[in-house]
């Protein structure tokens, strides 16, 4: 019974570890090989606080959480500026540095470690009672797991997944990507710290061996084996791996068993990666679990009704003569190539402006500068009277600059509904510390209905619970419009909305743009090559070539200019 | 003091030689195939144990034993590349999946070695153990000289191969622009497999020298691999020359640190430098700037 | 840190009452998994034919590195357990009690050792556990105390193991007893006054470091260099280069057996060839294989298997002949084998004492009896002092032409006298 209790306790610890790494990796998309370092920080802080400060179990666990979360936040501020392989390498260095510090700092006891860590006392069970520890550990694990589960499926978790899917698209919608990443990393590492505290309490002895890079690798295996971004993945992975190790330990009590289990661990990892990369439990397609899309599609088609939310930004261009977007003398060069030499534009609220020109004219760079993906070398951009030239991309998104990318940039592994839901900006549970609390549900329900309205508006209602990646390209563009509505963007920058879609869909898109302007009072700048598309859509067009504005005026006027046609349109 | 610093320089160089050999191979595989081949550490140990198997357990002549070990290790590495890495790369461009597979292989190979040869350490007889030169009060073992020579020659030969042969140039072209290279008819599997083989061949002398100095243990590859990863970052991802020089620098740096501080702080120094590079100078000393920008 | 025994007994007085008889039997019956029971059965059948059936069984465990840094020691440990049990079980040495062994791997790692001990206690129902390695023993001691089983260290020599817990005994003279003897020989007899220390940064090395310099000074020597390395280090040349800068006459290596040969070999390549000294870890084949000629002449201390006249002790002679009978040759019999054998006999002798005085074979009674019993062991007469450390004879050995030979033996009284001198100064 006692031994079984130890095994269950270990499963608890590994569950917390794997679930917390899953939060970072599966939801946040941050590949970390330093999880064992934060596991270790938690273990040492727990050990020292119980031994030297006589801290009770729960207090010591909270200290372990705080220390690991704080350490990870401090480290992540510089580290999370980088991504991809470089982030992995940075966490690699963090792991080795942490091991080195555990080995060499005077307070950690060096390689000899810390022993005689008092074991916890729970709920009136006698001290050292295995059953007491078991109950306590299961309780702590359940709380940790539940908090992480709620975080993952809250609006906070939804934004995290969006960042994992497409960082730029998420930032463009107005999410502070860096903040979400740091929060996810800190929260995940904090829970690893709690696992460390439980480990120290269970074994009553810790040394750096338990927190070396091999442990990080083992946790990775558990996460992958269990299933990335699945709330039960951590539990499944921890259970599978611990059972494997313990069964082998009982069958082969010598180190042969330990080595065999490590060989199997490696083989299983390779096999999972090759044959079943989604792990034992694949990611849930939908995580907006508080109401499923199916129950709401039954409510009939509301295509024709007025959109039920969103301020009407302007009823007609005439009411707001002041330009909503003003760009002056924008310039941008890439390593000697002057992509944009000088770009000026005034766009009045409620206008639809076409931006046309040959390939390489600098149109996309102009959009990049207005949306904030690129900071101009010179010139100013003001939006709604506010200078936004150097403002961060997500701040512009929050102010109301929205963008539909040329390739639509959907979040392919999220549902269509979640693609829209993530764009709302006023959900309280987007804050990591509130994300697991039972609050703000009424507003969330409202937003859910509105998201369905948006989808209905663009004709995607029946696709709400499908993966966005499974939509056709044209549908992905329509989804982009729905996302812009949810974002409540006042200025829509549309980059070739009609390119690559069939004529029927093209008409649908065109209608949607016109209708959004009419009903929502939005302002649109649209880059397009297809003159037919712009013909009865754009109020006026700006012709751009060689990085400069060449002409401005009505489409018919510009299309009729023989000089422009000859020089740029190849006619 | 002068004696000590010169002696530490010799020691640092002979350690750096091992790091150089491992780092050069690791960097070559990374730059050509874009694979973080962490199982390089396990293949390193494998080649050492194979040399032990042939030379000492089977009693074959030393040179033959080393050659056999090289052939078998390269075979294992190439099979890993073709059977595991390539399918994964074709299925998804996600490099983490390959990192995970590589970690799995590391576990499997390392512990298989432990099952076969134990973890207690096996000893390779060093034919040059007794040969030591004395310059003033500084001792230089013949083994040190051999280690440094092999490392410099091995690295130089690899770089020369990349610059001077047709296949080498194809590998470089593929490393710099895979799409273009494929257009002009370079077969990715071939250049990848050759990179894997060369990288593995460089491990064999490193493993044998490690076996001479201390003992062969299944985990022996992890330390040099960690330094190789740090060296690749410092030298710049994509640059073989940079990795070799990075390894040399880090090896000497850690020897320099141990002149003033207890020796074990030297690891911390090396990885602190790696951290600074990866965050603030991701292009490293010789890396391809564009690629590091893309990773941001 | 350690709790008083009185307090311990108060806390679970009723439990102790309930467990007075058949303590191990019940636990074994209810909790052993089928497979481990089979292993146990296989082992005990081999050791005890026929009449064993009717006897009471007592489970004990050995947690030792079966692989890991000292794999070969695990093998000799198993062999030693086997021959000890042949004598004890076949000849009914205790009288109506059969010993059942469980040999578990500690991999010489503290965390694995803790897990192995938990398994030994709760799965195998062991009431008496033999262990080794300082870091492993130190980490295990609180677990043994918590679970109220006797833990006997026969291999770890770190001074930190002294007085660790009422349930923990050191059946090996710890290095704080050994080092003054070695230093007296080096400094006062051989007049090598400048000494250096190279220590493994673990419980053993740190423990030795805490007293090495002070002891050398007390005997008139001078510590000229002190370096450490991390467990798992393979290349010691940086530390050795720094030690060489201090030009010591003698270097004491406080490491584990497999490292010593590497260290001596690498030192030779740097031109560092002092008198090498160490404790029992020096007695390992790797010292000869890797240290080669440079290791010859090295000196180390260890529990003595010899009397003052360098004649083999009778108890040790008995073990040698049993070993020869069972395995053909004694070439693989190292000091660890002797220590494990000693650990098994400590249990057998204690149970015999308890049996003869009619007491139950509980861990509590074993612990209390061990505090007072005088044992006759393979390292001479042995008693445990108030810190539960063994007082027994110690010898200085030397590696001569690839053979480990004793050349000076100190009785437990001599040991106490020299130590008292060092402490006074």
At CATH level 2, the architecture of the largest domain in chain C is 3-Layer(aba) Sandwich
Alpha-carbon distance between the termini of chain C? 28 Å
User: What amount of the residues of chain A lies in strands?
Assistant: 5-15%
Helix content of chain A: 40-55%
CATH hierarchy, class of the largest domain in chain A: Alpha Beta
Specify the overall morphology of chain C: globular
Largest interface between protein chains, with number of residues from each side: A-B, 41 and 45 residues
* Total of DSSP H or I helical runs spanning 4+ residues of chain A: 21
- Sheet having the most strands of chain A: 6 strands, mixed
What does this structure look like?
The complex is a heterotrimer of chains A (571), B (296) and C (425). By secondary structure, chain A is of the alpha/beta class. Chain A folds into 2 domains: 2-212, no CATH class; 317-569, Rossmann fold (3-Layer(aba) Sandwich). Chain A is built from 21 helices and 12 strands. In chain A, strand 3 and strand 4 (337-348) form a beta hairpin. Chain B has one domain (2-118, 132-152, 188-291). Chain B is built from 12 helices and 2 strands; from the N terminus they run H-H-H-H-E-E-H-H-H-H-H-H-H-H. In chain B, strands 1-2 form a two-stranded antiparallel ribbon. The longest helix of chain B has 32 residues, at 2-33. Chain B is globular. By secondary structure, chain C is α/β, with parallel strands linked by helices. Chain C folds into 2 domains: 5-173 and 313-391, Rossmann fold (3-Layer(aba) Sandwich), CATH 3.40.50.2300; 176-304 and 393-424, Response regulator (Rossmann fold, 3-Layer(aba) Sandwich). Chain C has helices spanning 5-11, 13-18, 23-31, 34-47, 71-90, 110-122, 134-147, 175-189, 203-218, 237-245, 257-269, 285-291, 314-327, 335-356, 363-372, 412-424; strands at residues 56-64, 97-105, 128-131, 150-153, 168-170, 194-200, 222-229, 250-254, 275-278, 299-303, 375-377, 380-384, 390-391, 394-400, 403-410. Chain C is globular and about 65 Å long. The A-B interface holds A 31, 78-79, 81-86, 88-90, 92-94, 96-97, 100-101, 103-104, 213, 217, 220-221, 224, 255-256, 259-260, 262-263, 265-270, 273-274, 277 and B 36, 84, 87-88, 92, 95-97, 99-101, 103-112, 114-115, 119, 222, 226, 229-230, 233, 237, 264-265, 267-268, 271-272, 274-275, 278-280, 282, 292, 295-296.
């Amino acid at each position: 019974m006692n031994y079984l209790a130890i095994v269950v306790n270990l499963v608890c610890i590994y569950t917390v570890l794997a679930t917390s790494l899953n939060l970072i990796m599966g939801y946040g998309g941050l590949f970390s090989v330093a999880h064992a370092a934060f596991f270790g920080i938690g273990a040492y802080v727990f050990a020292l606080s119980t031994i030297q400060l006589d801290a009770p179990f729960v207090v010591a666990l909270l200290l372990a959480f705080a220390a690991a979360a704080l350490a990870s936040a401090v480290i992540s501020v510089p580290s999370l500026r980088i991504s991809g392989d470089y982030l992995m390498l940075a966490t690699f260095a963090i792991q080795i540095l942490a091991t080195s510090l555990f080995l060499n700092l005077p307070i950690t006891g060096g390689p000899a470690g810390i022993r005689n860590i008092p074991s916890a006392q729970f709920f009136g069970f006698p001290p050292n009672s295995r059953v007491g520890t078991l109950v306590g550990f299961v309780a702590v694990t359940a709380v940790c797991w539940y908090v992480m589960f709620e975080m993952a499926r809250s609006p906070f978790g939804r934004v995290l997944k969006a960042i994992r899917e497409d960082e730029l698209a998420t930032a463009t919608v107005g999410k502070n990507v860096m903040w979400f990443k740091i929060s996810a990393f800190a929260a995940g590492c904090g829970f690893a710290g709690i696992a460390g505290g439980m480990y120290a309490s269970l074994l009553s002895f810790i040394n750096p061996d338990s927190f070396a890079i091999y442990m990080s690798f083992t946790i990775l295996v558990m996460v992958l084996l269990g299933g990335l971004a699945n709330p039960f993945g951590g539990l499944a992975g921890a259970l599978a791996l611990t059972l494997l190790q313990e069964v082998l330990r009982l069958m082969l009590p010598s180190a042969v068993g330990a080595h065999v289990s490590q060989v199997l661990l490696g083989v299983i990892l390779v096999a999972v990666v090759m044959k079943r990369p989604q792990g034992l439990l694949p990611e849930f397609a939908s995580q907006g679990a508080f109401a499923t899309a199916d129950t709401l599609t039954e409510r009939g088609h509301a295509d024709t009704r007025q959109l039920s939310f969103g301020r009407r930004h302007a009823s007609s261009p005439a009411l707001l003569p002041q330009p909503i977007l003003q760009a002056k003398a924008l310039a941008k060069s890439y390593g000697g190539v002057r992509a944009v030499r000088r770009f000026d534009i005034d766009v009045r609220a409620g206008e639809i402006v076409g931006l046309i020109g040959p390939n390489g004219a600098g149109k996309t760079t102009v959009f990049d500068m207005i949306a904030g993906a690129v900071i101009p070398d010179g010139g100013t951009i003001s939006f709604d009277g506010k200078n936004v030239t150097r403002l961060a991309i997500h701040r512009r998104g929050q102010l109301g600059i929205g963008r539909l990318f040329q390739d639509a940039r959907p979040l392919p592994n999220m549902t269509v509904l979640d693609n829209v839901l993530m764009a709302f900006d006023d959900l309280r549970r987007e804050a990591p510390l509130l994300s697991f609390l039972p609050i703000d549900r009424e507003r969330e329900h409202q937003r859910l209905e509105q998201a369905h309205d948006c989808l209905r508006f663009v004709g995607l209602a029946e696709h709400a619970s499908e993966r966005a990646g499974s939509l056709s390209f044209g549908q992905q563009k329509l989804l982009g419009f729905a996302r812009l509505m949810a974002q409540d963007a006042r200025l829509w920058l549309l980059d070739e909305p009609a390119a690559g879609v069939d004529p029927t869909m093209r008409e649908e898109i065109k209608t949607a743009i016109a209708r959004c302007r009419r009903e929502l009072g939005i302002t649109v700048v649209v880059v397009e090559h297809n003159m037919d598309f712009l013909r009865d859509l754009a109020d006026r067009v700006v012709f751009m070539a060689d990085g400069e504005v060449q002409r401005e005026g009505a489409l018919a006027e510009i299309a009729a200019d023989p000089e422009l046609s000859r020089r740029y349109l190849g006619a | 003091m002068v004696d000590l610093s010169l002696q530490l320089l010799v020691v640092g160089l002979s350690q750096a030689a091992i790091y150089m050999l491992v780092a050069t191979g690791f960097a070559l595989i990374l730059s050509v195939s874009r694979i973080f081949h962490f199982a390089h550490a396990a293949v390193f140990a494998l080649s050492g144990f194979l040399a032990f198997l042939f030379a000492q357990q089977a009693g074959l002549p030393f040179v033959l034993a080393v050659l056999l070990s090289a052939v078998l290790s390269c075979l294992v590495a190439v099979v890993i590349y073709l059977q595991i890495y390539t399918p994964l790369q074709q299925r998804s461009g996600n490099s983490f999946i390959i990192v995970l597979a590589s970690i799995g292989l590391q576990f499997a190979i390392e512990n298989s070695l432990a099952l076969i040869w134990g973890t207690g350490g096996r000893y390779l007889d060093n034919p040059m153990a007794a040969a030591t030169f004395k310059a003033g009060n500084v001792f230089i073992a013949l083994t040190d000289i051999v280690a440094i020579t092999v490392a410099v020659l091995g690295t130089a030969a690899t770089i020369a191969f990349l610059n001077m042969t047709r296949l080498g140039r194809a590998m470089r072209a593929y490393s710099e622009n895979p799409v273009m290279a494929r257009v002009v008819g370079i077969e990715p599997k071939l250049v990848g497999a050759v990179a894997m083989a060369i990288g593995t061949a460089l491990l064999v002398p490193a493993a044998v020298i490690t076996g001479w100095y201390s003992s062969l243990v299944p985990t022996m590859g992890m330390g040099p691999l960690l330094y190789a990863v740090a060296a690749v970052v410092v030298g710049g991802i994509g640059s073989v020359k940079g990795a070799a020089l990075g390894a040399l620098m880090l090896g000497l740096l850690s020897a320099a640190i141990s002149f003033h501080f207890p020796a074990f702080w030297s690891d911390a120094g090396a990885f602190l430098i790696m951290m600074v590079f990866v965050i603030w100078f991701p292009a490293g000393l010789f890396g391809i700037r564009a690629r590091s920008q893309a990773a941001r | 840190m350690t709790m008083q025994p009185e307090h311990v007994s108060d806390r679970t007085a009723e439990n102790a009452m309930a467990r007075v008889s058949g303590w191990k039997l019940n636990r074994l019956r209810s909790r052993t998994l089928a497979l481990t029971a089979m292993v146990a059965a296989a082992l005990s059948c081999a050791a005890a034919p026929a009449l064993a059936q009717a006897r009471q069984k007592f489970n004990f465990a050995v947690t030792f590195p079966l692989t890991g840094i000292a794999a070969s020691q695990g093998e000799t440990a198993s062999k030693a357990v086997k021959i000890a049990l042949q004598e004890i079980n076949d000849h009914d040495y205790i009288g109506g009690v059969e010993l059942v062994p469980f040999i578990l791997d500690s991999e010489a790692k503290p965390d694995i050792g803790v897990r192995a001990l938990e398994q030994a206690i709760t799965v195998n129902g062991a009431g008496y556990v033999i262990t080794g390695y300082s870091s492993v023993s130190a980490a295990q001691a609180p677990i043994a105390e918590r679970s109220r089983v006797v833990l006997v260290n026969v291999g770890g020599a770190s001074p930190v193991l002294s007085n660790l817990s009422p349930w923990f005994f050191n059946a090996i003279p710890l290095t704080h007893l050994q080092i003054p003897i070695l230093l007296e020989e080096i400094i006062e007899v051989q007049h090598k006054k400048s000494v250096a220390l190279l220590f493994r940064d673990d419980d053993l090395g740190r423990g030795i470091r805490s007293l090495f310099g002070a002891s050398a000074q007390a005997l008139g020597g001078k510590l000229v260099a002190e370096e450490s390395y991390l467990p798992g280090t393979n290349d010691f040349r940086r530390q050795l280069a720094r030690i060489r800068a201090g030009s010591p006459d003698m270097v004491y290596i406080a490491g584990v057996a497999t490292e010593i040969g590497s260290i001596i070999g690498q030192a030779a390549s740097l031109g560092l060839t002092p008198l090498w000294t160490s404790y029992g870890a020096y007695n390992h084949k790797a010292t000869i294989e890797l240290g080669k000629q440079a290791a010859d002449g090295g000196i180390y201390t260890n529990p003595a298997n010899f009397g003052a006249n360098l004649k083999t002790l009778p108890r040790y002679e008995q073990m040698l002949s049993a070993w020869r009978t069972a395995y053909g040759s004694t070439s693989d019999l190292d000091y660890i084998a002797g220590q494990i054998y000693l650990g098994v006999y400590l249990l057998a002798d204690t149970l015999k004492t308890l049996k003869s005085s009619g007491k139950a074979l509980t861990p509590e009674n074993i612990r209390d009896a061990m505090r007072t019993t005088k044992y006759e062991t393979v390292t001479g007469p042995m008693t445990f002092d108030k810190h539960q450390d063994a007082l027994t004879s110690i010898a200085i050995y030397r590696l001569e032409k690839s053979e480990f030979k004793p050349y000076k033996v100190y009785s437990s009284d001599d040991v106490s006298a020299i130590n008292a001198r060092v402490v006074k100064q």
